[in-house]
Amino acid sequence: MSEKINKRLNMIFRSSFKDIEKNSSVLESIESKTYKTKKQKEIEKKVIDICLEVYPKAKIIQNYVMETKKGKILIDVLMINKDGIFVFDAKDISCKIVSNFKKEKITIENSFGKKFAIINPVKYNVESCLALYDILKIKIKNLYKNIVVFGDDIIYEKEELKHASIATINTLKEAIEKRAKETKDVFLEEDIKKAYDKIIERGENNGL
Predict the structure, then answer these.
(1) 8 Å CB contact between 65 and 77
(2) Domain residue ranges in the chain
(3) What is the pLDDT of residues 157-184, one digit of tens each?
(4) Cα distances (angstroms) measured from residue 104 to each of 67, 121, 152, 204
(5) How many CB atoms lie within 10 A of CB 121?
(6) What confidence tens digit (pLDDT) does each residue in 88-106 have?
(7) Rounded CA gap, 179 and 147, in Å?
């Protein structure tokens, strides 16, 4: 076999190998995104199930998207019931939180010891609560309840926050009941429907 043919074959093999690597990388990326989406859907379903366990007649909105002056916001799960409006940010991530929830970003550490900064979900949820106030214009102290929910694989130091709750799926029911005590029986049935309809009108959603 001539040297020219050898070179040509080597080039073809190298090119094919690069294509295989590239395709494998794309497949891994798709699989990773699919896995993350599946985990997110699972934790949202768990949040909804617990909400309906505590408040069987509650109005629930899932994956609520709304345009605000600061851009779009996404609320994973939103519950309206007789005791107020509960805003849930749900994250099923397996890591350790190595900072507090008072800054704009929090630091998380994975199982390999690598640290990442992510948007503070408590602060993000504050913006969501403000956006809901802009829609409803109901000014009642502690009406909009900020609850951040993690999966049970999270590791973090418990922190008492004045206007928010951090929970895992295992402690979510307790967190809901604690926040509910701040505004017991604040809404009548017609108030719940009115608030729900106004919120639905302003955004993109999956109302349940």
Answers:
(1) no
(2) 47-207
(3) 887 888 899 999 999 999 999 999 999 9
(4) 21, 9, 24, 26
(5) 23
(6) 999 988 889 988 888 889 9
(7) 9
